[in-house]
Amino acid sequence: MNPSLPTPHNQGTTEVPRLSDSYLSQVRAHVSLPALRRARGILPGAHESHLVGRGHDFDELTEYRPGDEVSDIDWLASARSGQPVIKRFVRQSTSDIVLIVDTGQSMAADAPSGESKARIAVLSAAIVAYVAHSRGDAVGMVAGDSQRMENFPVRSGDAWINMLCHRMNAMITLDAPPSNVGGVLERARRVVSGRALCILITDETHPGPEDIQGLKRLSARHDVAVIHCDDANLLDPHQAGAWAMDIDDDVPEFLNSNQDLAQTMALIAQQRRLEVDSVVQRYALGSAHVRGTQTIMTDLSSLSERPTMAKTRRRLADNTQQESMGGQC
């Protein structure tokens, strides 16, 4: 470990603040019961707990949104309401959920809330696992960085989920190796069998253009969503005292007051986020940006706001076929 690295959360140790060993208990403590009940619909993709289609128990009528199948529109209900509505059904079958975790050193840095991203990442993973468990789905994990890769099979039960969160918690430290998101995605592609919903947990700078190959190959087999643990802005006066892995000490006061530098850093961060968003949108992944534990349920709710991967793949295939036919004309 570099002895000059600061330890802003726990002086004299490379550990960052942790949730308690009973992670599911922490989920219940951080999130109200009504919110947890609503959370059952946050997981996106082909493994949602509420799916549109036939062969399932009817749940509710809901407003038509872009990405929904036109064939699922209830025309009589649409005529009565004056706007397109679709039938939504409750799926009865179970599916596998696989957490793909970036355990690189940058994940131990600060979030906009002032908490460590490690804390936010573990709580996000625990919430996803809780939702999966409540639906009867099994959970596995692939975690790693540039020097370590670990994978855990898909299993069920409170003890198993707590063990996964505990291992994830132990791997994200201030002296962890750098991230290798592309490598973790490739490992997941090789070890995850069957069809699963894969949830990538990383920071706001991934997945970027350098991760496209791994992401593309993984999403060809599985539905994929991304949870971004956002970074603190070191030059934001409202986030004073925040800490990042790339800087060995507090930002000097003369830099804090430099508006030109602040604007330049904001532009660089914005450009990187646009690159990441472009990758996410290109592969139509569900995504969420989490800024802190106090807003975590609201932040995670955006996971379910994207069209399903299956529908998107069909549209992409249709577009590719049309482009191909157009080129032959």
Give an overview in words.
Helix 1 packs across helix 4 and helix 4 runs antiparallel to helix 5. With 329 residues, the protein is α/β, with parallel strands linked by helices. The chain is 38% helix and 17% strand. Helix 7 (212-219) links the parallel strand 7 and strand 8. It starts with 22 loop residues before the first helix and ends with a helix. A six-stranded mixed β-sheet has the order 6-5-4-7-8-9, sandwiched between helices. The protein has a three-stranded antiparallel β-sheet with strand order 1-3-2. Mean pLDDT is 75; it is low at 1-20, 45-55, 239-249 and 307-320. It has eleven helices and nine strands. The chain has helices at residues 23-30, 33-38, 75-81, 117-134, 158-171, 181-191, 212-219, 253-256, 259-282, 296-300, 309-328, and strands at 50-51, 57-63, 85-90, 96-102, 138-144, 149-155, 196-203, 223-229, 286-290.
Q: Can you tell me the overall shape?
A: globular
Low-confidence stretches at least 5 residues in length (pLDDT < 50)? Answer: 1-20, 45-55, 239-249, 307-320
Tell me about the largest β-sheet: 6 strands, mixed
The main sheet orders its strands as: 6-5-4-7-8-9
**Class based on secondary structure composition and strand pairing:** alpha/beta
Explain briefly what this protein structure is.
The chain is built from 11 helices and 9 strands. By secondary structure, it is α/β, with parallel strands linked by helices.
Structure keywords:
single chain; 11 helices; six-stranded mixed β-sheet; three-stranded antiparallel β-sheet; globular; alpha/beta; 329 residues; 38% helix; 9 strands
